[in-house]
Task: structure prediction
Amino acid sequence: MTAALVPVAPETPAPGARVATGRRARSRRRRTVLAVLVAALLVVLVVTLCVGERSYSPLQVLRVLTGETVPGASFNIETIRLPRMLSGLLVGLGFGMGGVVFQTMLRNPLASPDIIGVSAGSSAAAVVAITAFGMSGTALSLVAVAAGVAVAGAIYALSWRRGVQGARLVLIGIAVGSMLDSVIAYAMTRAGVYDAAEALRWLTGSLNSAFWAGLGPLAAAMAVLLPTLLALSRRLSALQLGDDSASSLGVRPDRSRLALLLVAVAVVAVATAAAGPIAFVAFLSGPIAHRLVRGTGSLLVPSALVGALLVLVGDLVGQHLLVARFPVGVVTGVLGAPYLLWLLARTNRSGGSL
Amino acid sequence: MSTHTLAVEAATIGYDERVVVHEMTLEVPAGRITTIVGANACGKSTLLRAMARLLKVKAGRVLLDGRAIDQIPSREVATVLGLLPQTPVSPEGIAVADLVGRGRYPHQGWFRRWTAQDDAAVEEALRATDILDLADRPVDELSGGQRQRVWIAMALAQQTDVLLLDEPTTFLDVAHQVEVLDLLTDLNRRRGTTIVMVLHDLNLAARYTDHLVALREGRLVAQGAPRDVVTPALVEEVFGMTARVIDDPVSGTPLVVPVGRHHATNPQVETHDLAG
Result:
């Protein structure tokens, strides 16, 4: 009907050419966005190594990284800044990718693990373990990861009614989250001064305790979990069309959802165990990534990159740009809270569905 | 033409404790259009869902090519049997061609990613549904009728020989309903696709169907060519409604005219006399 408006090709194009053109344009746009994100991330990584109480030139940093001993620089960069940068990177990638899996699967931007109490589960367990049992180190991290997974399982089970629906899970998750917050508050009132200081790290989210020792397990866990999520991303994109469509495409909805949830929860819990629940990173990364790549494919990688940027930039700002030093969680919290308010307001206006 | 066979054998289907369809036995004619009709809550969608393997049968079997469908790997079923569900969800911001492209999922795998063949399949599906011009538009911006075409195109891109549709005309105005059914008929005639659908409108069903299946309270009441099956007695039995059945002046297929309690100025009108 509108054929007259479309310029007629001189010869018959190959079948699929019309579709391929549009698809290529979209994937070009997507690649551009990804390239910009990666470039920005690289810049931030370098800046993180260069800037501090003593700043170094990128050249000095490069010399240290290639194994040279640079007096006055090696210790600062190798022992303090490099592990901090690497854990910020890994934690950010994890929060970003884990969060967007939740939001996509439950079709609700509020269904992020830091809103629905998964991160709170890890924090509460850690705080109780510190204050009541004096735990620390690897054991403490394991408890936090296990608690995150367990709380996610409980929320999932509580919201199960012939399948899980996003909005119900969000509400139950928020309720479970506030229960866990009161557990945290109770544990903190009983805590000694030193324990409380250690516990506080689990509540705000900070890279202050990022040293080489903790980096190995974190890197190993992420090296397994993030590729697993990527491998599951095609199932996620089938689930996005609704359970019925997913099954008709040959994807088993319940199994796939369970696998995705388990891995995503593990990613978020591991990240939380490493740096505390850095506020709103999991919650913000997906929507920001969605704005950037807008409908050109899976959000997993873009959201992971945005997450890493949020954590690293937040940490830089908290460490160097403000009057006092703030943990990264405070900075991202300030960013995330207004967005949460806006989302809630929008939900209210449109009658509850997002 | 489709050589795949789909049949239901003494199947009892339901949700939890509630049985909706009782010991149903049904054979879907290959390469034809079959429509399941019946009153609300008679189990027609439930039956279709079981045939699409969305629901497990409680007893009996659903057979695809003679094999119990729940014994066949999901991926394999998905290359033979496609489904247009009642309420599919489109991801925010996705372009029409990309959504239709999701129908290629069963044809891809770990080592076989997107190819020119997939582009060709998507384009063919968009052409068949007459939405090639919309290929790069976001699905969110389309009207209800256009969106339904997109979903049908996605099912077409899956290139299955059997296509199940659960009320493909709901939410569409009458012009779009006819358009969708014409489209399905094209598909059936050109490719020989076996089509099974659930429809609300008995008259459209009678016109567009080769094989009509009428259900009441989860049991089979009648099946066969609409001309043989649609009678005042059947309408009475299936819908609990008095009606005349006349010849559709356009297609010659049976046309059901409800009597109702009001406006029946000529209740004695005889059937089969309006064809001329």
User: Anything to note?
Assistant: The domain at 25-350 of chain A is CATH 1.10.3470.10 (ABC transporter involved in vitamin B12 uptake, BtuC). Chain A has one domain: 25-350. Residues 23 and 105 of chain A are 24 Å apart (CA to CA). Chain A has 14 helices and no strands.
